[in-house]
Write a structure and sequence with these properties.
Radius of gyration: 25 Å
Number of helices: 2
Largest sheet: none
Number of strands: 0
Length: about 70
């Protein structure tokens, strides 16, 4: 019985560690997906800029230009 209690305690501890890791990963995902971060990377690292108005082409539902 004591051996089983130790195993249960170990598994409960493992579960708590996994839940904490999950919480940390969710925060990391939210940070990585932050629009400001993506915008910064696009501008600084990739040298991207917003298109000029005349560079934008709007497509209709069937792919035809509007």
């Amino acid at each position: 019985m004591t051996d089983l209690e130790y195993k249960v305690a170990e598994e409960m501890n493992r579960k708590e560690k996994l839940l904490e890791e999950q919480r940390k990963l969710k925060v990391e995902v939210a940070t990585l997906k932050a629009p400001n971060r993506i915008d910064s990377i696009a501008r600084e690292r990739l040298q991207m800029v917003y298109p000029q108005r005349e560079q934008i082409i709007h497509l209709g539902e069937n792919g035809d230009k509007r």
